[in-house]
Design a protein that fits this description.
The structure is a single chain. Helices cover about 50% and strands about 5% of the residues. The longest helix is centred in the middle third of the chain and has 12 residues. It has a two-stranded antiparallel ribbon. The radius of gyration is 15 Å and the shape is elongated. It is mostly helical. The protein has one domain: Recoverin, domain 1, CATH 1.10.238. GO terms for molecular function: calcium ion binding.
Length: about 170
C-alpha cells in the first residue's frame, strides 16, 4: 500500500518532498527512486531531479536544486544514489516538526481547502508512481479520518504522523 511523503527541513523541502516517502519496504523505495532515475543508471542527477519535480508540478530554481543535491549527496559525487535517497527518507520519518508536517500535508492538499480527499491522495500517489485505485485511497483516508468527514484534515494528518513509531500505521496514507 502506498505511503506519505515527508519534506526535509530546508526551504525547498516542499518541492523535494514528493519523492520522500515513508515506505513500507525497500521495493516501494526503489519504485519511487526509479521514477527519478530516468536513465536507470542507479543515481539521480540534478537534471533528473529537476525533471521529476517539474513532472510532479513543483519546479525549483537552479540554486535550490544545487542545495538539495548538496544536502542529499553525502559522498559528493554529484548524484543521489539509492542509499542516500533511502537515508533521506528515513531521516525525515523520525521527526515530527510542524513545519515539515504542514509542508507534507500541503503537498497532498492539491486544492488548498485544508483537507486531503481520496481523489487528491490518488492523484499525488499516482504521480509518484505508487499505483493505487481510488477505492484504496478511500480506505487509506478512512483509516485516519477520526471525524468521519471522508477527508483528512491537518490535525488528523499530524496525529497519524507523530503518534506512531517508525513503520507503524503511518504507512496508511
Amino acid at each position: 500500500m502506498a505511503t506519505i511523503p515527508t519534506p526535509a527541513t530546508d526551504p525547498i523541502s516542499k518541492s523535494i518532498s514528493e519523492p520522500t516517502v515513508h515506505l513500507q519496504d525497500m521495493e516501494e523505495l526503489k519504485k519511487v527512486f526509479g521514477r527519478f532515475d530516468a536513465n536507470g543508471d542507479g543515481q539521480i542527477s540534478i537534471s533528473e531531479l529537476d525533471n521529476a519535480l517539474k513532472a510532479l508540478g513543483t519546479g525549483v530554481s537552479k540554486s535550490q536544486l544545487e542545495l538539495v543535491m548538496k544536502d542529499l549527496d553525502k559522498d559528493n559525487d554529484g548524484f543521489i544514489n539509492l542509499s542516500e535517497f533511502a537515508d533521506f527518507c528515513r531521516s525525515n520519518s523520525a521527526d515530527g516538526d510542524s513545519t515539515e508536517l504542514r509542508d507534507a500535508f500541503d503537498l497532498y492538499d492539491q486544492n488548498k481547502d485544508g483537507l486531503i480527499s481520496a481523489s487528491e491522495l490518488h492523484q499525488v500517489l499516482n504521480r509518484l508512481g505508487l499505483k493505487c485505485s481510488i477505492e484504496e485511497c478511500k480506505n487509506m483516508i478512512q483509516s485516519v479520518d477520526s471525524d468521519g468527514d471522508g477527508s483528512v484534515n491537518f490535525e488528523e494528518f499530524k496525529k497519524m504522523m507523530t503518534n506512531n513509531p517508525l513503520g507503524a500505521s503511518r504507512n496508511n496514507l
